[in-house]
Design a protein that fits this description.
four-stranded antiparallel beta sheet; mainly beta; five-stranded antiparallel beta sheet; 166 residues; 13% helix
Length: 166
């Protein structure tokens, strides 16, 4: 019995597929910053030459020509409504509604916040609320019509940092 289980296990292990996606097979660049699988099963790749949707057979690249806020995509998230949100190198945020990219209405302010800083976390919660976190700077709550910052106040002493609500 143990011998038969061993053979079946080895057969199952032998069926594991390994794919190498690169610019030779459809990605616009070999520089990939993030990978995300949406609820529909599509794989999305954030690259330095746009975002790529892979359906298991073909690659479709989207760039700022299609409305992406910047061609370098660092993070991809999906909200409760199935829309995909993208955070780009310039700090811009947009979502894909299934047919087009829609920039966040406060993108000009978001880009100013990100200038000279690199967001390290990005989440989208219910009601289209976006949270962005920065090392040594704190985080921002971004809603459709307002931005609230939770900044970190740094002290010269060895005490803990405190949050400032702006």
């Amino acid at each position: 019995m143990g011998f038969a289980v061993s053979i079946i296990t080895q057969l199952l292990v032998a069926q594991v597929a390994n794919y190498n996606f690169n610019s030779n097979v459809g990605l616009p660049s070999n520089e990939t910053y993030c990978i995300f699988q949406d609820k529909a099963g599509y794989m999305w790749f954030g690259t330095d030459h746009g975002v790529v949707r892979y359906n298991g057979y073909t690659f479709k690249t989207f760039t700022n020509a299609e409305g992406l806020t910047d061609n370098t995509v660092f993070s991809i998230k999906e909200d409760d409504n199935g829309r995909l949100w993208f955070m780009t190198f310039n700090g811009g945020i947009c979502y894909f509604d299934g047919s087009r990219f829609v920039p966040h209405p406060l993108n000009d302010s978001i880009i100013k916040i990100c200038y000279g800083k690199m967001p390290v976390s990005f989440e989208v919660t219910n009601n289209n609320t976006v949270w962005m976190g920065f090392v040594q700077w704190g985080f921002y709550k971004i809603e459709a019509n307002k931005i609230k910052s939770f900044l970190v106040e740094h002290h010269d002493t060895a005490g803990p940092a405190t949050a400032l609500y702006v």
